[in-house]
Specification:
- This protein has about 400 residues and is α+β, with helices and mostly antiparallel strands.
- It folds into two domains: about 290 residues, Bira Bifunctional Protein, Domain 2 (BirA Bifunctional Protein, domain 2), CATH 3.30.930; about 90 residues, Rossmann fold, CATH 3.40.50.
- It contains 14 helices and 16 strands.
- It has an eight-stranded mixed beta sheet, sandwiched between helices. A five-stranded mixed beta sheet has the order 13-12-14-15-16, with helices on both faces.
- A hairpin with an 8-residue loop joins β9 and β10.
- α1 runs antiparallel to α4, α4 crosses α9 and α7 crosses α8.
- The longest helix has 20 residues.
- The protein starts with 12 loop residues before the first helix and ends with a helix.
Length: about 400
């Protein structure tokens, strides 16, 4: 027996119903905010990701040469492909551009709870504006999405890399390695590098909870963003320890956690960044975020969210009358009703048992005498009630 590759999953029909339901809700929220869907290839030129993240990313991605010797990678995330698309095709478009996307990504990680080698991301990019109200709306939309899918307990943390880098400069420690240590929360290494006295100042700084306590010039814009977040009624915590770990992030950054997930609690991360110029485009402000779709589903389950499991399809049972069943199935499907007909030549009792096991609430029974009169039988599987209805009335009687 051949199994699936390590770090991947099969999704059964019950899984896909849950995933499609949550996916639909997320799409609706993005579109309510005026975002439009885009899609990019699953494979990209390897250079797209090494330019963005450096050669060290090679240990984390699936990369290979194609039959013509071109270096190709399975996409490990979706921001770089969308910005590549923008640079290639959309630089002259009217700003702002508001894109969202949903797709599978691949990373060569050690599989663990909530972390897979193939995973799915929802995300978005806002191109062309960095006004405080625009950044606040971006964060508000991320929060709105997670609350709308049904999560009760999420924590929004907002930081600022300009302020963090300005503070580190006062210690002579504003460099990429320091940002990586902060991103990993490797406080032991930070203390060894800074020394005890400076480390205490650093800890006091990142534990600041009131933006008004900061005297850096960069704090003025941050205050305005946070005031707009309050207008959006988004509860947030100031968290100056957010570093994001990549050099192209700038300005405001944020993360959203689901505490129920424990160590792997982060559901969403994003902020302002400068990637367009790295990929050869003309500079315009950009920001965005990505939501870990798989973790969001896991968080819903951990909170005890119950997905409605009633099957909304209509089942058509018949007494050895497949042609008549086909006519009824075609009629219902044409009217937009999901209809499954018996394909196993079952008797009526076995057909009703099948519908019951599948959680189907409505069964249409086709029998010779009723058909002769232009009627069929509708059986309600919950109440057990059944009634004869005219074939031409069937659609109206099956409406919810």
């Amino acid at each position: 027996m051949i199994g699936k590759p390590r770090g991947t999953r099969d999704f059964l029909p019950s899984d896909m119903k849950k995933r499609r339901k949550v996916e639909s809700v997320m799409r609706n929220v993005f579109e309510k905010y005026g975002y439009e869907e885009v899609s990019t290839p699953t494979i990209e030129n390897l250079e797209l990701f090494t330019l963005k993240s450096g050669e060290q990313i090679m240990d984390e991605i699936y990369a290979f040469e194609d039959k013509s010797g071109r270096k190709i990678a399975l996409r490990p995330e979706l921001t770089a492909p969308v910005i590549r698309m923008y640079v290639e095709k959309l630089q002259m478009e009217t700003k702002p551009l508001k894109f969202y996307y949903f797709g599978n990504c691949f990373r060569y990680d050690r599989p663990q709870k909530g972390r897979y080698r193939e995973f799915w991301q929802f995300g978005c990019e806002l191109i062309g504006t960095n006004r405080p109200e625009a950044i606040a709306e971006l964060i508000a939309m991320a929060y709105d999405i997670l609350k709308t899918i049904g999560l009760r307990n999420v924590v929004v943390r907002v930081g600022n890399l300009d302020i963090l880098r300005r503070f580190l400069s006062t210690m002579g420690a504003n460099d990429a390695e320091m940002m990586r240590l902060i991103d990993k929360k490797d406080f032991e290494s930070i203390e060894r590098r800074l020394g005890k006295e400076e480390f205490e100042k650093f800890m006091e700084f990142i534990e600041t909870k009131n933006i008004d306590e900061l005297e850096f010039e960069e704090a003025n814009r941050m205050k305005e963003i946070l005031s707009f977040l309050e207008e959006f009624s988004v509860p947030f915590n100031l968290d100056l320890s957010i570093a994001r770990g990549l050099d192209y992030y700038i300005g405001t950054v944020f993360e959203i956690d689901a505490p129920k997930l424990g160590a792997e609690k982060q559901l969403c991360g994003g902020g302002e960044y400068n990637l367009i110029t790295i990929l050869g485009g003309r500079h315009v402000p950009t920001s965005g975020f990505a939501i870990g779709f798989d973790r969001a589903l896991l968080a819903l389950e951990m909170e005890g969210y119950t997905f409605e499991d009633e099957n909304d399809i209509v089942y058509i049972a018949h007494m050895n009358m497949p042609r008549e069943a086909i006519k009824v199935a075609r009629m219902l499907r044409k009217e937009g009703i999901k209809a499954e007909m018996d394909l196993m030549a079952r008797n009526i009792k076995k057909s009703l048992d099948y519908a019951n096991r599948k959680g189907i609430s409505k069964v249409v029974i086709i029998a010779p005498d009723e058909w002769e009169r232009g009627e069929v039988i509708i059986k309600d599987m919950k109440s057990g009630e059944q009634k004869n209805v005219g074939i031409n009335e069937l659609f109206n009687r099956l409406q919810p």
